[in-house]
Amino acid sequence: MADQGNSEITAAQAGRVGLRQITELTGKEAEGVTGVQPTDDGWRVTVEVVEDRRVPSSADVMATYEIDTDMDGELIAYHRDRRYSRGHGGGD
Q1: Number of helices (H) and strands (E), helices first, in the chain?
Q2: pTM score, two decimals?
Q3: Per-domain residue ranges for the chain?
Q4: Residues 61, 85: contact at Cβ < 8 Å?
Q5: d(Cα 29, Cα 46) in Å, to the nearest integer?
Q6: What pLDDT, in 10s, does the model give residues 3-57?
Q7: Torsion angle of alpha carbons 34, 86, 63, 82, nearest 10°?
Q8: Residues 35 and 68 sit within 8 Å (Cβ to Cβ)
Q9: Alpha-helix residue ranges (DSSP H) falling in the chain
Q10: Does the structural domain 11-88 have CATH classification 3.30.43?
């Protein structure tokens, strides 16, 4: 996954990898990356996903997923962090 000669990916690359991985794993539409944090052995990427489309779109069911990768961008683990209605926000 990383560039040849450099085995560690950047935060931007980790974000792109996490976005692609969560789409492939869940089959759901990803809205975007909402966070990238370094961990002891790689990166934690947070991605916002549309879990269920509704009409109006402000009633869509959203979720945030956390994806953990190693320094090469290989998936270690992922989980859904929380679900919420788009119109009600996913605030902390």
Answers
A1: 1, 4
A2: 0.83
A3: 11-88
A4: yes
A5: 14
A6: 444 568 999 999 999 999 999 999 999 999 999 999 999 999 999 999 988 888 8
A7: 100
A8: no
A9: 11-26
A10: no
